[in-house]
Amino acid sequence: MSIIIKNLNFIYEKNQIFQNTDFQFDDNKIYTLLGPSGIGKSTLFDLLTGFKKPQSGTVDYQNVQRSEILTVFQNNQIFPWLTVSEALALPLKINKVSKGQTGSRVKRLLKQFGLEALAHKRPHALSGGQLQRVAIAQGLTLDPKFLLLDEPTSSLDQEAKEEIQDRLIEEQHTRKSTMIIITHDIEEAAYLGQEIILVTNQRLQKIANPTFNKNNRRQALEFYEFCIQLRKQVRQL
Ligand SMILES: Nc1ncnc2c1ncn2[C@@H]1O[C@H](COP(=O)(O)OP(=O)(O)OP(=O)(O)O)[C@@H](O)[C@H]1O
After folding, report:
1. Ligand 1: which atom is nearest the Cα of residue 39?
2. C-alpha R_g of the chain
3. For residues 56 and 72, what is the distance between their CA atoms, to the nearest angstrom?
4. How many whole angstroms separate alpha carbon 156 and alpha carbon 161?
5. pLDDT beyond 90 at 28
6. Which of 23, 36, 79, 160 could form a disulfide with 204 if both were Cys (CB 3.0 to 4.6 A apart)?
7. How many Å apart are CA 174 and CA 151, to the nearest integer?
8. 15 lines ligand 1 (CB under 6 A)
9. Is pLDDT at 7 greater than 90 in this prediction?
């Protein structure tokens, strides 16, 4: 399962975003995507889901349907009249998943994302961080093969951020799916990314994979050393 980008060119009027870009996203991985504001990260998501079409070049899907690629946006809105449980059940209902399966899936996600106590609340009664957790959980209900996450932890405090990061790793590990995560947070890119990609010079550039011990890395000196190097690379863009 992979998404293969070949010789892709994408321009908004006179603003060239991607030029002769090649890249391959494989399955069973977390990719993190770094790059300055306005460089084209969200545009890349739209090209991957087929929402936008390149002027030339191709995006090929190998053993994956476009419907199996889902995006969770920065400001995902959940319908104001739905409770958290109903919001999580909605994509399953639309896809005619049985009631029994829907119930167990929703229950599992509520537990995993620490939303059990909020199950019957509506969005107006939730904080920004809680809404963000609901949006991520909702993105996972249909078990997408590729989940594209646009700044999934941007409105969370450090503790909540770390909790969500660990949930994402756990989810990816369990499902063997692929996540592509846009972030402006260097530590997050280093912590989550099995592959770190910089969007630069109208291309996607893979940078050295983190090689530090993945266990307990938040406490590891080598993790911080890696982040310092990564920060330098990003600043040079
Ligand atoms: N529909 C559009 N029409 C014209 N220009 C656009 C359109 N959407 C985005 N752009 C421009 O294209 C460039 C890339 O936008 P994009 O949203 O992909 O950047 P980004 O890297 O995701 O930014 P950020 O990190 O700030 O979210 C920006 O300069 C933006 O202003």
Report:
1. 21
2. 18
3. 26
4. 5
5. yes
6. 23
7. 22
8. yes
9. yes
Q: Over 70: is that where the pLDDT of 21 sits?
A: yes
Take atom 28 of ligand 1 and give the residue whose Cα is closest. 38
Q: Are 20 and 7 in contact (CB under 8 A)?
A: yes
Which residues share a beta bridge with 8?
Answer: 21
Asked if residue 65 has its Cβ within 6 Å of ligand 1, the reply is: no
How far, in Å, from the CA of 217 to the mean position of ligand 1? 33
Q: Is 145 in the pocket of ligand 1 (CB under 6 A)?
A: no
Global confidence as pTM: 0.92
Q: Whose CA is nearest to atom 24 of ligand 1?
A: 37
Cα 48 to Cα 22: distance, rounded to the nearest angstrom = 13
Model pLDDT for residues 33-53, shown as the tens digit of each residue: 999 999 999 999 999 999 999
At 214 the three-state DSSP class reads: coil
pLDDT digits (tens, 9 = 90+) for 131-172: 888 999 999 998 899 999 999 998 788 888 898 898 899 889
* 37 in contact with ligand 1, CB cutoff 6 A: yes
- Is 149:33 a contact under the CB 8 Å cutoff? no
Q: Which residues contact 69 (CB under 8 A, 6 or more apart)?
A: 3, 48, 49, 61, 144, 145, 146, 148
Candidate of 9, 16, 41 to mutate for ligand 1, largest count of ligand atoms within 8 Å of Cβ = 41
Closest CA to 134 of 103, 155, 158, 162: 155
- Cβ 183 under 6 angstroms from ligand 1: no
